[in-house]
Amino acid sequence: MDKMRAAPVTVIIAHDLEFWQKLPFLFPHEDRTPLFRGKPEYCERTAFLNGTLQGAYLMIAARALGLDIGPMSGFSNQIVDDTFFAGTTLRSNFLCNLGYADENALFQKLPRFEFEDVCTFV
């Protein structure tokens, strides 16, 4: 909580459960709305996955601009949704602090797996 309060910006990465209604504008090539109409679980899963990818793109862009990022989960999504998105079809996924971190508070680079230890080719 202290890191979030100290960050210049905290972004709520969220997704819209009714994203598919904007597909005629966003994907005018063909009507894909029937894939989602009347399928709330499918809409929610698709929105969540694509929203997560968009959040990752935001973090990559912030890093490319030289900003430090601090993605966070483990908070009450319900409280965030009730506070910021009440009456909408938006749902929070994760939070992300953006700014320039205190160098003394940053973790050093943690261990990483070798490619061969976590990936396979089929």
TrEMBL record:
Q: Which InterPro entries match?
A: Nitroreductase-like, Nitroreductase_HadB/RutE
Q: What is its EC number?
A: 1.1.1.298
Q: Which UniProt keywords apply?
A: Oxidoreductase
Its top-level enzyme class, in one word, is oxidoreductase
The answer to whether the entry has keyword ATP-binding is: no
Cite the GO molecular-function annotations of the record.
3-hydroxypropionate dehydrogenase (NADP+) activity
Q: Does the keyword Oxidoreductase apply?
A: yes
Could you tell me which PANTHER family the record lists for this protein? Answer: MALONIC SEMIALDEHYDE REDUCTASE RUTE-RELATED
Task: Write down the NCBIfam families for this protein, in alphabetical order.
Answer: PRK05365.1
State what protein this is by name.
Malonic semialdehyde reductase
Species whose genome carries this gene: Vibrio algarum
